[in-house]
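Translate sequence into structure tokens.
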Amino acid sequence: ERRDADSDAQSFWYYQGDTLLAVDAINDSRAYMVGKRLIEMGKSPTPQEAMDPATNLKALLKK
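Result follows.
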């Protein structure tokens, strides 16, 4: 679970092994769109990166 301390935004990132399978986002359109693009691109950030609110989600697209 990734939760924004300053708002109600939260997201849940689902993995099978090291592969990102899905992202559920509540009041967090950025997490949803980044997760969707990562899946389409075949990229999987580590679960630790996805859960860390300090991680810049857009930067994950460039890895």
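Note: The two ends are 21 Å apart (CA to CA).
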